[in-house]
């Protein structure tokens, strides 16, 4: 009995050593095969690609029922609204060929584009548009879209012009319109066989295995360059990475720095950003973080560049406030350097605030997001240098949602907030004092006033200035210890060109082509 | 009678003594601060950093010392809980028998029926994370194995003549149980303790490997092994150093257990 146990221990040791040797061997083999891949692909590559994704899509593909970001990322290629977002964060005409907005911001006129054809061959009419708006307002799972649509007081159709009148100006209305995907009237099988007007049409799907799209030949615009896109689903990240590294996938997004470092097949690695604001979100309602000096001290005590070097080899973009760089119009890089790394200043501020010997607090971090955990480990070490003892508590995501986000039962937490719609309000609305989403309990009269004023402003330049002022206030008051927008890596086949990063969680397949 | 040479005892004892000495040293002194990120990332093993550095530039040797200390302490506490409660339950059941014995034994059986890690995960999920909760969760899991062994020994001993005679002389039950019978269970109990100790270290490593054990930045062997798997290709010394420490710890005490068992048989 005991002999067996000892034998087992030895075998385990031998197996460990053996597996490591095997790993070393695989690296070399992969290196060799990658050269072959490059050689053979120097010639002809079929005009189709296989994309690896890390989770299956929602059970229903109906755009008004499904709400997972991963589903939206894929179906962005199938559905379109009257307008659609482009890679700069602007809204461009899609199913509508012309959009006119009245000076008071109350009336929107959309001219329906001629020759828009659904994937099932039907021609898009104003009836389809009206049907889509009604269905979306009645069934959409996105509450901010429903809220925007509920402000419509009158809809009139004149020939191919649809005019919508709002009860009050709403600077986010176009963003909501882009989420109203135009669907053929009377067709109800979107859950299993979705039909839209996008550059790609849905072909087939095998649950937990793959989803296939093909070029929509009757597309009105420039259209897709690839004939076919196959999404393969790998729920295990190691399996996904191995498939990529062996060359059987042409494109995989959302890779980590470690995966990029281990990639050995000669693929091109593109760097974008995750489009979220990572920060130590501080509960402004509890001591000691109800004291602005303490919050500022934390900002000075944290060396964001040092943290980026340790966690991601220096990749990632400092943010400094609740805005990420993909929102080029509002993002202000100077705010990112408002609190340079200065431990002496931090200790001085702590002493001023009545904590000359520092203090202890707990950072809760969702355990399933390794980048956030890594960040927290480094920050805790940095805070130790100024006498602040940050205890780390890993919790699962559902506990985070319920306890931290819902009950606001936390002192500090490291997470990232993203924008659900392409509008600065998606990031800024939550910090208004009486917002139900204001989990840190930030309360500042000036912020509330400036934000309200920005919402009511129709003039674009003036509104932009006001939103920027909101960001400055968040920085000045040190609402949170703002860190970074994480780097997002995409590996693509060396000859596949035209990849564009969007300020939203989508991948546009229509711009990709083989060289 | 001349005792036969016992290589298990000597080799196991040597490894265990060396490992224990290192662990005790680790409580007071480590070459570097185990959480300091002052050195470069992924430095290979060298004289400066015996086992290299990890993904944050922390000295792996210092972290292995600290982690082994944590795992060791948890294992000792877990075995202590399991052993004390196991002896209480086991001696009661074995000595008195009857309905209480039947019920308690069945409860122990039902605990054993669940996969132990799964049950520990459930306990941790209910009670929340933390070092004390791991000790309690694993401690509860270790009670049945001790209880069963002690019960068997007590059931065997209670009808032996010298116990009967003690009972006739009017010796109290408590005294019979703990002064007369318990010492007789010692050889069996000793090997159960060493095996249990090894299992406790492995269980803690598994829990931390699953992210439910020790919280970062504090090191434990399991959590280090879990972190190191990402860098298996680029920094194999991370996994090897940590895995090697687990193997040494377990191997030493396994051999020691085997040696002690053999010694007790020859006596």
Helix content of chain B: over 70%
DSSP strand content of chain A: 15-25%
Query: Which strand order do you get reading across the main beta sheet of chain A?
Result: 8-9-10-1-11-19-12
- Note the gap between the termini of chain B: 10 Å
| Class from helix and strand fractions of chain B | mainly alpha
CATH architecture identity of the domain at 274-487 in chain A: Roll
Secondary structure tally: strands of chain B: 0
Radius of gyration of chain A, CA atoms, in whole angstroms: 26 Å
Oligomer classification:
heterodimer
Query: How many helix segments of chain B?
Result: 9
Main beta sheet of chain A: 7 strands, mixed
Give average pLDDT of chain B, whole number.
Answer: 84
CATH domain class name of chain B: Mainly Alpha
The helix-strand sequence of chain B is HHHHHHHHH
How are the SSEs ordered, and which strands pair?
The complex is a heterodimer of chains A (515) and B (267).
Chain A: H1 2-40, E1 48-53, H2 69-75, E2 83-85, E3 91-93, E4 96-101, E5 107-112, H3 126-139, H4 143-150, E6 152-158, E7 161-166, H5 173-179, E8 200-206, E9 210-215, E10 228-233, H6 237-245, E11 251-255, H7 257-262, E12 268-273, E13 276-282, H8 292-301, H9 304-312, E14 317-318, H10 343-352, E15 360-366, H11 370-384, E16 389-395, H12 397-406, E17 412-418, H13 425-428, H14 445-456, H15 460-476, E18 481-485, E19 487-492, E20 496-497, E21 513-514
Parallel strand pairs in A: 1-10, 1-11, 15-16, 15-17
Antiparallel strand pairs in A: 2-3, 4-5, 5-7, 6-7, 8-9, 9-10, 11-19, 12-19, 13-17, 13-18, 14-18, 20-21
Helix pairs in contact in A: 3-4, 4-5, 8-10, 9-11, 14-15
Chain B: H1 7-28, H2 60-96, H3 98-113, H4 116-127, H5 131-157, H6 161-168, H7 173-209, H8 221-228, H9 236-266
């Amino acid at each position: 009995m005991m002999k067996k146990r000892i034998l087992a221990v030895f075998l385990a040791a031998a197996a460990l050593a053996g597996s490591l040797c095997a790993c070393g061997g695989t690296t070399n083999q992969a290196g060799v095969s990658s050269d072959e891949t490059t050689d053979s692909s120097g010639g002809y590559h079929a005009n189709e690609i296989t994309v690896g994704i890390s989770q299956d899509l929602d059970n229903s593909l109906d755009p008004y029922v499904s709400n997972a970001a991963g589903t939206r990322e894929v179906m962005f290629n199938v559905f379109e609204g009257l307008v659609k977002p482009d890679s700069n964060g602007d809204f461009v005409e899609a199913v509508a060929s012309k959009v006119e907005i009245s000076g008071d911001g109350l009336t929107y006129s959309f001219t329906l584009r001629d020759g828009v054809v659904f994937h099932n061959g039907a021609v898009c009419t104003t009836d389809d548009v009206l049907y889509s708006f009604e269905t979306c307002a009645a069934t959409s799972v996105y509450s901010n879209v429903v809220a925007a649509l509920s402000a419509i007081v009158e809809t009139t159709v004149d020939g191919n012009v649809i005019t919508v009148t709002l009860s009050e100006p709403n600077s986010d209305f176009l963003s909501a319109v882009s989420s109203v995907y135009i669907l053929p009237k009377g067709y109800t099988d979107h859950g299993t066989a979705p039909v839209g007007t996008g550059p790609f049409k849905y072909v087939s799907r095998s649950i937990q295995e793959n989803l296939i799209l093909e070029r929509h030949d009757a597309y009105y615009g420039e259209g897709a360059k690839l004939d076919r896109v196959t999404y393969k689903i790998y729920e295990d990240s190691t399996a996904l990475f191995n498939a990529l590294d062996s060359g059987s996938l042409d494109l995989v997004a959302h890779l980590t720095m470690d995966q990029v470092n281990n990639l050995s097949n000669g693929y091109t690695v593109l760097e974008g950003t995750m489009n979220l604001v990572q920060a130590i979100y501080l509960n402004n309602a509890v001591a000691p973080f109800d004291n602005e000096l303490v919050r500022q001290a934390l900002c000075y005590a944290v060396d964001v560049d040092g943290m980026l070097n340790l966690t991601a080899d220096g990749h990632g973009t400092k943010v400094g406030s609740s805005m990420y760089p993909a929102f080029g119009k509002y993002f202000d890089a100077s705010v990112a350097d408002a609190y340079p790394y200065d431990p002496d200043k931090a200790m001085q501020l702590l002493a001023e605030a009545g904590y000359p010997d520092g203090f202890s607090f707990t950072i809760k971090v969702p355990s399933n997001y390794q980048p956030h955990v890594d960040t927290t480990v480094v920050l805790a070490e940095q805070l130790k240098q100024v006498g602040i003892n940050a205890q780390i508590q890993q919790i699962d995501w559902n506990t985070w949602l319920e306890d931290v986000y819902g009950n606001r039962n936390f002192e500090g937490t490291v997470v990232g907030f993203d924008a659900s719609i392409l509008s600065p309000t998606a990031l800024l609305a939550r910090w208004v004092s009486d917002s139900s989403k204001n989990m840190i309990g930030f309360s500042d009269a000036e912020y509330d006033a400036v934000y309200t004023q920005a919402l009511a402003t129709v003039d674009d330049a003036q509104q932009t200035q006001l939103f920027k002022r909101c960001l400055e206030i968040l920085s000045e008051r040190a609402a949170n210890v703002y860190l970074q927008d994480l780097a997002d890596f995409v590996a693509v086949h060396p000859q596949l060109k035209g990849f564009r990063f969007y300020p939203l969680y989508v991948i546009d397949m229509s711009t990709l082509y083989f060289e | 009678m001349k005792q036969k040479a016992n290589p298990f005892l000597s080799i196991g004892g040597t490894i265990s003594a060396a490992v224990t000495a290192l662990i005790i040293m680790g409580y007071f002194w480590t070459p570097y601060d185990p959480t300091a990120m002052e050195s470069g990332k992924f430095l290979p093993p060298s004289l400066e950093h015996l086992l290299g550095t990890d993904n944050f530039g922390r000295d792996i040797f210092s972290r292995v010392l600290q982690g082994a200390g944590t795992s060791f302490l948890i294992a000792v506490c877990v075995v202590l809980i399991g052993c004390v409660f196991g002896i209480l339950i086991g001696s009661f059941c074995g000595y008195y028998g009857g309905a209480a014995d039947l019920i308690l034994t069945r409860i122990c059986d039902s605990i054993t029926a669940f996969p132990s890690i799964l049950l520990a995960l459930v306990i941790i999920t209910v009670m929340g994370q933390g070092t004390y909760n791991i000790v309690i969760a694993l401690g509860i899991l270790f009670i049945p194995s001790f209880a069963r062994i002690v019960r068997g020994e007590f059931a065997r001993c209670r009808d032996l003549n010298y116990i009967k005679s003690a009972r006739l002389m009017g010796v109290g039950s408590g005294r019979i149980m703990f002064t007369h019978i318990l010492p007789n269970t010692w050889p069996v109990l000793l090997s159960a303790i060493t095996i249990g100790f090894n299992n406790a270290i492995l269980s803690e490593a598994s829990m931390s490997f699953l992210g439910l054990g020790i919280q970062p930045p504090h090191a434990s062997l399991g959590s280090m092994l879990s972190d190191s798997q990402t860098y298996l290709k680029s920094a194999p010394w991370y996994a090897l150093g940590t895995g090697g420490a687990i193997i040494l710890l377990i191997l030493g005490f396994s051999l020691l257990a085997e040696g002690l068992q053999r010694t007790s048989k020859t006596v």
